[in-house]
Design goal:
The complex is a heterotetramer, with two copies of chain A and two copies of chain B.
Chain A lengths: L29 H11 L10 E5 L14 E4 L5 H11 L4 E7 H5 L3 H10 L3 E7 L34 H8 L3 E6 L3 H13 L4 E6 L11 H4 L4 H4 E3 L7 E2 L5 E6 L2 E6 L21 H8 L7 E8 L5 H16 L4 H5 L4 E4 L1
Parallel strand pairs in A: 1-2, 1-3, 3-4, 4-6, 5-6, 7-11
Antiparallel strand pairs in A: 5-11, 8-9, 9-10
Helix pairs in contact in A: 1-6, 4-5, 5-9
Chain B lengths: L5 E4 L19 E5 L1 E9 L4 H14 L3 E7 L14 E9 L12 E4 L2 H7 L8 E5 L5 H6 L16 E5 L1 H9 L6 H6 L1 H12 L5 H10 L4 H20 L5 E5 L7 E7 H16 L3 E5 L6 H8 L6 E5 L3 H13 L3 E6 L1 H17 L3 E7 L16 H6 L9 E3 L3 H18 L3 E6 H5 L1 E5 L44 E3 L14 H17 L9 E3 L3 E8 L3 H13 L4 E6 L1 E3 L5 H6 L1 E8 L4 H10 L4 E4 L8 H12 L1
Helix pairs in contact in B: 1-6, 4-8, 6-8, 7-8, 9-10, 9-14, 11-12, 17-20
The chains are: A alpha/beta, B alpha/beta.
The structure holds thiamine diphosphate (2 copies), iron/sulfur cluster (2 copies) and magnesium ion (2 copies).
The site of one iron/sulfur cluster has 11 residues of chain A, from loops.
Chain lengths: 342, 633, 633, 342
């Protein structure tokens, strides 16, 4: 039951908790993500009742049950389509989609790319554990090549998607990546997503302790993370490594790693991250880094302004009313050629 | 009986204009007819649909009742002169009530050999053929598979053949209007129209006006087409080719203001009406598919109403977006045909579980699979009733005619919001594309669609039910009523997840009972013909006209036969069981292998006899009539 | 009756080993039982399924018949001690034929308070509770909603309660084996197993061997678990807690070699057998879904056969890839459950139209929509029979038990290739996850699956039919037989596109007739109980065991009741109609609201009475028995 | 009926024609594409009976009826999935997919991206007329923003996909673009696609005379095409314009147009096209050019070698047989714990 609100009192995290038992495995990365979202929502200046969270099916998609807003736990893969309808019907709502790597990219892949293309003003959080959790451990479209799972006892022969790259190619206006264990980073990325006008896509690496434990350890372990990841910051050079001693630069559109100080290389030689660039080209190049043995980028790849689908849709209605006047049913029924029998 | 006074207004609210009859009638014999069936046929580039529409408008203006049926080629723009490129338009009009576009034409207007070849088989024995002889030459004959010219080899001697050089006459008529040869040749449809107007005693003025409007800004085309029209009219009047012309007296139609409407247009208007009546936004999420696309096209043009249309990436997204919109407090609508319907079934299950008001329109076409997309069939009934996994009940309605589509659209949303349930509304390609006159209703006469969203947070339980077994509709944005719904089984009261044995049984039964309640709202069934006796003919959907005609004929011929036509297929009306018992036998004509038949047999254990036709074509009245007479003895 | 000799071989072709009985039996009273139902229950981390499996293996080795039913929590790994984290495993075994896993357990082994709370309601009045008292402490009691400790507050006085400190005893027993505290605690399931083996007179040696295999390479775990096992056994033997132990005589089972098999495994083996018998590649295109995934898992591990498995991006791609494979000359297979089934319907239509042999398995679960995924239901029958747009007939089969799944898998492909048609095979989550002994068949006893691809280009017509109304199967790669198929309606002979009226009618009828032909192959129906009389109980699918038991009891009690269990649901066997007439009444127990009931009523106009249970749980024998006795008087 | 073949006689174009009347509108761009395919197939050294063509639904998808091979005209959007099953069942066949912009990218978008990701050895020709032809003129996922169609009387508010970019992001190993009217170019691209081992994706701009006439005139009209398009050639610099006087270069990762001769710029300053580059990054940058007001690239964007899905699948089977021996049914049925009742 809903935690009751006195009018005027500022919202708190607790206002976004439901009484429901949270039914994820102990240690599941989903808890951390839930917690960040519950912290974020009260700070956005949006009345609680104006949030709606739509999810598909999967462990991750249980999310809405745990957040005290309007919510729908829908069917597998279809949350983006449902959320699009909701937003077009009710543009004033803040609509969030929670999905998993199977939900968004296997069965729901089509709705995912079309959502990115349209730029509906929705926030989509993809909880990517690189496995099907709820169905107990089959490989997903983001599982690594060669992975042994219940359906691939000899190793998977599927090459994984890079969701960030796919979203960029589909035309997404906001694309980011974070990881469950890095609470501060995650909080920052989620906030930027929330503030973006348009489809905001956040891929969140999420540890599935039960079926894919440790998948992101390299990125989160103190010993390895500095070399393994590249923290993107708008307007800052692409630096990584302990003490930020390494950098990335692009020569003729090819990425290279440079060591600061070696051969006279300085920060100024490194590429400066510009998330607001009109073309998605460089963001795409950056998205490829992880695949090529370079560090895995985390942060906001792209954040550009563009008219949202829902706003354009309202604009169409306005234009139509301007052209034809507000619809009048009586006139409509009697339009076209009519004749009277008396 | 005198023809009723008619008035014509080309635009809503336009001024009254008295009927005009400025042409002097030619001095040929005039035959009075009760009704006539005309089929125009030609190449898809020949402008056949246009001629047909114009002719039907003319007939409508005279206060005649009519029904039309277009037949499009399945190709977009098939090569000229081929059999698969033939386009047809049939109209029946009458001084009586017209319920179908007619079994067999009395007159066939064939603009080329292929049109003749394809349509001749349907023409009444002894019927009239008006053929454009200029098109009956080498290549065209070959493409139609004629070895010799049928206009000259006497093979048509069983018919009344008028071979007229429509092409040549048109070219000559438009000389001097400044159009190109190609444009000139395109005017021949207006020649044919002019000729038919003369032959059937229709005035020409309105067509002149229509041409002027249609080709606005292209004065040469206006001139040329008017010239062709007049030439056609004059040809009838002066060529002495025809010794008789025909007149059909206006029908005794219910007084009122009328317009012509296809079923798809009527659905669109009905849905807009539902939106206005409920005060809610109408949201249509749809993916184009023949023969349903026109609903989307029409509604996309009505965004000055509280209407949002969304062309989705596929049918699943179409229905899902409608579900999302319904969750948001809008009227959720999706429209499709068979193959798309198959794809929507999973999501319809979600709408059943979340109990949201979504209307799913299936404009049926010939299946299975891709089937024959441009052809009529009624074979998606069982899929509508039973085609979802689990115990997943959904009310199912079917429209019987283009005009009925308007009422069914409103009825579908009435049920959806009253009972908080998805509703399936069946139409078909026949109804969808056919036009008939529609009496424009008074707004005050339309049903009410009261909707009240719950706003009171006191004692709120997401799955608590009202007297109709409906749960409350809560718009996101309402403070204090935040809650979650979804596809998992829910506690009967709180809506929390529940895997409890007895709760599940209860919920399954409640969902079924809720749909069953719809029957309580239904008016008593109307029976045409004998209220009891030998044979009850039970129909649904677009077979209405053919059945009604056949039953009328049989009744007149003394058979103790009645006809009931079901709008509600799930649940059945409460009084249907008793009605079935009032007759010795039950016949169910359907454009499928007997789907309603199965439902009736199962529900009422009545040995209903199917009359099946699965040919992508509507019933002919005679087919039903004969079967009735066999059974009713 | 003497127990039959049994032999045990742990691997295929392993050597014969005589039964062993090296433990000396304790000096307590031994009670002989006909059958026993035991339920193990505990936290999902407690290793309940493992204990259950091991116990059933032990029972199997003794030549006893058995049936098991796991109950998984719907969460992946729910928090420890919660009600929704309880895992259960029920086994019934008997000296008679065992058809179900039993209505109510005689014994409940409860490893924690939540397990007791959830399962107590099912326990027989006066039944035995073996509770792990060490888990009945503060937090655990609270999580289970107990205010006081039920083991000590006398609330269980109606049962025979044995509260044993399994946790503590296990910890002490494994001391010194070098395992961590956590690991030690994980051994308590083997303590419980040891105790139950003692209580039911089962030898321990095989379990020792099993533990050694399971923890190969982890000597401490081997030692610890064996110690726990022996401690449990010894506890029974020495603690004098139990004054009675139990013995069930081996059943008079058909001689042969046996193994234990779940329905999903049996399907997988059956499909491999179909591949081997036909000499064709088996292609499985599937998307994971509970409770069907295991078929995919199993077949993915059998690629050393001519088996290709493909985990598709969704269910549509799953069935479509199977259609593509069938077009290529392979056995096309796809496996799913309700929600996925909904998504496959459009493509099944394509398989009907292209007439390709594809088998679609639906392991049903509780719906509608997401429903209760881990629960049993039989509510997808009407969807299987009618759930596609258009006249789109598909043969439908249903398996009645885990072992029957093997035969049904072969039968499904026999029909598919003989008639060139998709076939729907229904199973359910109950059958899919339950294990029972399966007599390993002789290869020679398996049905033949002859397939001959057409290779002769002479006079080839893509839609020409053989005596079974099947069109020829042509493998791409065959010279001279290049042809095109698709979802549009086809000419009845050439397979060219055809929109012809009579051709369509013919094709619709032929497709229906072809499916109808399947009935010709069916053996006469087998009736259990009275061959005629008061009541025929008609069943399908997993209700078989419960119905058979109930009918047997009723028959023994003198009721004139018969039972027929349908494997073929579409078409029905030819002799069903006559059989129905041989009884005064017809009762149809189903785990739905009466779906087979509807089909029987419609087809035979028989006033079949449904017995519906839609609780996500199987029928209890008693529920059916009572209804039978009400009706048969 | 099949044109009969004498054994040994070399195949000709006519061998790939069916007797069926071709039912496209006169002047439809599909004719030219059909003709190129019919010319190409006989030259590939593959017996005619070893070809299979699978299509979805749309004008373009009528293609199989007109090619004398094995063929399936399937259902809307699903051809990639059907073809994948066919190829996995019968890896020795040469399997082609013919699809349209609606078929491949609206309803079929998910199968499309998954095919690209998996690299099944299929050839996929997407006949992109930027409209739904068969259903008579609704906008498609490649139609331009603002387009007025039957469903968008006030202009479309959907931003189009760039199919080349999407394929690259999904991991495609061969990506190319051509246009119906440029027969020679098309022939060359199709040949390269045919010879590629793995998924070969060719986007073919196709003129729909009836519902979207002239959509590609800029690219094909003699007057405009030189400036409007950029012909990609592996190993050659990116040059365009009349007389190839303009070039493209990448600064960092941003594209620039340079005029040869101006400010000392020479061919050598222009980026050299390398379709075989391991990373898809630069191909992606090139794919973005058309969107940015630069010329529209035609030709092969990317052609890299990678194991095909079907070959990997066969390899799995081989490995399984190696490990466990060729499957023996009798042994399988009797595997696990067994016991004998006598
Ligand atoms: C139509 C349909 N197909 C399949 C399933 C089974 N299913 C449920 S969740 C899931 C995948 C879950 O993976 P993911 O989206 O990555 O979520 P996670 O559990 O890993 O968070 C599948 C295959 C389903 N519920 N519905
Ligand atoms: C499931 C389903 N949905 C919709 C349709 C209707 N439909 C047929 S083709 C088509 C789109 C065609 O566009 P495209 O793929 O671009 O092909 P084109 O005709 O332009 O070549 C649509 C929406 C269908 N046949 N099946
Ligand atoms: S299975 Fe994995 S993803 Fe699912 S709840 Fe458990 S840890 Fe989380
Ligand atoms: S509608 Fe367009 S794409 Fe279709 S056949 Fe005609 S010209 Fe070609
Ligand atoms: Mg996942
Ligand atoms: Mg197109």
């Amino acid at each position: 039951m809903s935690h009751s609100l006195e009018p005027g009192r500022p919202l708190t995290r607790r206002d976004f908790e439901t009484g429901q038992d949270v039914r994820w495995c102990p240690g599941c990365g989903d808890y951390a993500i839930l917690s960040q979202v519950q912290k974020l929502l009260p700070t956005l200046g949006i009345p609680r009742e104006n949030f709606a969270i739509v999810s598909g099916i999967g462990c991750s998609s249980r999310f809405p049950y745990y957040v005290e807003t309007y919510g729908m736990h829908s069917i597998h893969g279809r949350a983006p389509a449902i959320a699009t309808g909701l937003k077009l019907a009710r543009p004033e709502l803040s609509v969030w989609v929670i999905t998993g790597d199977g939900d968004a990219l296997a069965i729901g892949g089509n709705h995912f790319v079309h959502l990115m293309r349209r730029n509906v003003d929705l926030k989509l959080l993809l909880l990517n554990n690189q496995i099907y959790g709820l169905t107990k451990g089959q490989f997903s479209p983001t599982s690594e090549f060669g992975k042994r799972t219940k359906t691939t006892p000899l190793g998977s022969i599927d090459r994984p998607f890079n969701p960030v790259a796919l979203a960029l190619a589909a035309g997404a206006t906001f694309v980011a990546r974070s990881v469950d264990a890095e609470q501060e980073h995650l909080a920052g990325v989620l906030r930027q997503a929330a503030l973006h006008k348009g489809t905001a896509f956040v891929e969140i690496y999420q540890n599935c302790v039960t079926f894919n434990d440790g998948a992101f350890d390299l990125l989160t372990d103190r010993d390895t993370r500095d070399d393994a990841r590249l923290l993107l910051e708008h307007g800052r050079p692409l630096l990584f490594g302990k003490g930020l001693t390494k950098g990335i630069r692009f020569r003729e559109a090819k990425a290279e790693i440079v060591i600061l100080g070696e051969g006279g290389v300085t920060e100024a030689d490194c590429a400066v991250h510009d998330a607001s660039e009109g073309s998605a080209g460089r963001a795409f190049l950056i998205s490829q880094l992880g695949q090529l043995g370079f560090p895995v980028p985390l942060g906001v790849f792209r954040a550009v302004e563009a008219p949202t689908y829902d706003a354009l849709s309202e604009e169409l209605s306005r234009a139509a009313r301007e052209r034809s006047g507000t619809g009048n049913l009586e006139q409509l029924l009697a339009s076209g050629t009519t004749w009277t029998i008396s | 009986m005198e023809p009723p006074a008619t008035s014509l207004a080309d635009d809503a609210g336009g001024p009254y204009s008295p009927p005009t009859a400025t042409m002097t009638r030619p001095a040929v014999q005039v035959e009075e007819l009760e009704s006539v069936v005309i089929r125009f046929a030609g190449d898809s580039g020949d402008g056949i649909q246009l001629v047909g529409d114009e002719f039907s408008q003319s007939v409508a203006r005279a206060g005649l009742d009519f029904s039309t049926r277009p037949e499009y080629p399945s190709e977009i723009r098939a090569p000229v002169g081929t059999l698969f490129g033939v386009s047809g338009y049939q109209i029946q009009y009458s001084s009586h009530e017209v319920l179908t576009s007619g079994d067999s034409p009395d007159v066939l207007v064939a603009m080329n050999p292929a049109a003749l070849k394809i349509n001749l088989q349907d023409l009444k024995p002894g019927g009239m053929i008006i053929a454009n002889s200029s098109a009956f030459s080498g290549a065209n004959l070959a493409k139609a598979g004629y070895e010799a010219n049928p206009l000259t080899d006497d093979s048509l001697s069983d018919y009344r053949l008028f071979a007229i050089d429509i092409g040549g006459l048109t070219s000559r008529a438009v000389l001097g209007s400044g159009v190109s040869r190609k444009e000139a040749s395109r005017c021949k449809n207006y020649f044919a129209l002019g000729l038919m107007l003369w032959l059937y005693h229709r005035p020409m003025e309105n067509e002149v006006a229509a041409i002027t409007r249609r080709f606005q800004g292209q004065p040469e085309l206006v001139a040329a087409n008017i010239a062709a029209l007049r030439a056609g009219y004059a040809y009838g009047d002066t060529s002495e080719t025809f010794s008789v012309s025909y007149h059909v007296r206006p029908a005794a139609i219910h007084p009122g203001r009328y317009r012509s409407l296809t079923g798809n247009q009527a659905l669109a208007l009905g849905f807009v009406a539902a939106s206005e009546l409920s005060g809610l936004r109408l949201f249509l999420g749809s993916y184009p598919i023949t023969p349903a696309s026109e609903i989307l096209h029409t509604l996309a043009g009505l965004r000055h109403f509280n209407v949002v249309t969304f062309q989705a990436e596929d049918e699943i997204a179409g229905v899902c977006s409608a579900i999302g919109a319904a969750f948001g407090g809008a009227l959720g609508l999706t429209t499709t045909s068979g193959p798309g319907m198959a794809l929507k079934t999973e999501a319809i299950g979600l709408a059943v579980m979340t109990e949201l008001p979504v209307v799913i329109v299936n404009v049926q076409r010939a299946g299975p699979s891709t089937g024959i997309p441009t052809r009529i069939e009624q074979a998606d009934l069982l899929q509508a009733v039973y085609g979802r996994p689990g115990e997943c009940p959904v009310p199912v309605l079917a429209a019987r005619s283009p005009a009925d589509c308007f009422d069914c659209a409103i009825e579908a949303f009435r049920i959806a919001v009253k009972y908080m349930t998805p509703v399936i509304l069946l139409s078909d390609g026949g109804i969808g594309n056919s036009a008939e006159p529609w009496r424009i209703p008074d707004l005050a006469s339309l049903p009410r669609l009261p909707v009240s969203f719950r706003t009171d947070p006191e004692d709120f339980h997401a799955y608590e039910r009202d007297a109709n077994l409906a749960r409350a509709w809560v718009r996101p944005g309402t403070p204090g009523l935040e809650h979650r719904i979804g596809g998992l089984e829910k506690d009967f009261l709180t809506g929390d997840l529940s895997g409890e044995a007895l709760n599940h049984q209860h919920m399954v039964e409640v969902r079924a009972a809720k749909v069953g309640r719809v029957a309580r709202d239904l008016p008593p069934l109307e029976v045409q013909g004998s209220p009891a006796g030998d044979l009850l003919v039970v129909g649904w959907g677009s077979t209405h006209g053919a059945i009604a005609h056949a039953v009328e004929q049989a009744h007149t011929a003394g058979a103790l036969v009645g006809h009931v036509h079901l709008r509600h297929l799930n649940p059945f009306p409460d009084d249907l069981g008793e009605l079935l018992l009032a007759y010795r036998q039950v016949l169910v004509p359907e454009l499928n292998l007997g789907q309603l038949t199965r439902l009736l047999r199962e529900r009422y254990l009545v040995d209903a006899i199917p009359l099946s036709k699965v040919q992508g074509r509507p019933f002919k009245v005679a087919e039903i009539y004969h079967r009735i007479m066999e059974l009713a003895r």
